[in-house]
Specification:
The chain starts with 7 loop residues before the first strand and ends with a strand. The chain has nine helices and 14 strands. The strands form three sheets. The protein has a seven-stranded mixed beta sheet with strand order 9-8-7-10-11-14-13, sandwiched between helices. Helices cover 29% and strands 25% of the residues. The longest helix has 23 residues. The chain is an alpha/beta fold. It has one domain: 3-Layer(aba) Sandwich (Rossmann fold).
């Protein structure tokens, strides 16, 4: 039950992107037979260069290739990356809305998880990998009495969770944290695995620290959905080059099976107004962070008419797998 390390074909300095890059074999099956799916730019920070999204002809996993080397990924996550936004520091009129939105997301995630494993009890040992500012674990503690453990590599976020929220967290990654075997009942990876350079190795390490019969829950972009197929390179949830892999249900099942998990549930869903974000990007928006003051508001207005059709427009997969 060990992961397969990425096979790097070559590394090179990209003048187009201004960063070192690597060309890899398929992160799932190791094949080197790929076809081009699309070419995309960084629409979040408008960094230079185009990135190729390819599909493995052997296992159908879609992944970015070539891509930034692991050290070169750091600059793609600057301080104003929204995944690290602390609601308490937002303007007084916006902060309550963001808190309510985050709480709604957490309640949905807990509900999807409980459909598979039953009610989340306070005695469960829960690990949230890539927890960010720990919102999901905050709501799990509030709603279910679970004192989960966060894991994040960013020191500033770890300090906030420890010293401001007073919640347990470990700085690092699954590979550096050194957790003992079979420690956790539930491992969470919410919008995390798609950011990993070696996703199969990460899942193998997650399996090592999951109790037999325990579970892993993953939330991932659903690229084979209607919005993904329709919007393609301007799809909001594409977010290249931070998102490096895009599994289908079949390729995710294979990846999990290879490391000792059995996929038992996949739920597709979206969040309100997500389609509006893609429409605004399709109309020419090319720098989300620079225009973050108006972009969410305009996206909400544009996306509002599509709310009754959300069931047709899934943006995410919520997958739960059981450790064998």
């Amino acid at each position: 039950m060990t992961g397969t390390h990425i096979q790097v074909r070559r590394t090179f300095d990209s003048d187009e992107h201004g960063e070192p890059q690597e060309e890899i074999a398929c992160p799932l099956c190791g094949e080197q037979d790929e076809e081009l799916v699309l070419v995309a730019r960084d629409l979040l920070f408008a960094k230079p260069g185009r990135y190729r999204l390819v599909r493995c002809r052997g296992c159908a996993l879609e992944y970015v290739n070539p891509r930034p080397t692991p050290p070169a990924l750091g600059p793609h996550y600057p301080e104003d990356y929204f995944g690290y936004a602390i609601h308490e520091k937002e303007p007084p009129l916006i902060a309550p809305l963001l808190r309510a939105f985050a709480r709604g997301i957490s309640k949905r995630r807990i509900a999807y998880l409980e459909r598979v494993i039953g009610r989340v009890e306070g005695s469960l040992q829960v690990l949230d990998v890539g927890c960010g500012v720990n919102r999901l674990l905050q709501h799990m503690r509030e709603l279910r009495g679970v004192e989960g453990l966060g894991l994040d590599f960013k020191p500033e976020i770890v300090d906030h969770v420890q010293n401001t929220l007073g919640m347990p967290i470990v700085e690092g990654t699954l590979h550096t944290a050194g957790f003992e075997d079979a420690r956790f009942d539930v491992v969470l990876m919410m919008e995390y695995l798609e950011h990993e350079s070696d996703p199969k190795a990460v899942l193998a390490e997650a399996r090592r620290v999951t109790k037999p019969g325990g579970h892993i829950a993953l939330e991932l972009p659903h690229i084979s959905s209607l919005p993904g197929r329709l919007f393609r390179s301007v799809w909001w949830n594409l977010d290249i080059p931070r998102h490096l892999i895009f599994p289908t249900e079949a390729s995710l099942r294979r990846m999990l099976d290879d490391v000792g998990y059995e996929l038992v549930s996949v739920k597709t869903f979206t969040f309100p107004f997500y389609v509006g974000m893609s429409i605004v990007q399709a109309l020419g928006q090319r720098h989300w962070i620079k225009n973050r003051g108006w972009f969410p508001i305009v996206s909400a207005i544009v996306g509002a008419p599509f709310i009754p059709l959300q069931w047709m427009l899934p943006e995410f997969m919520f997958a739960v797998a059981r450790a064998r």
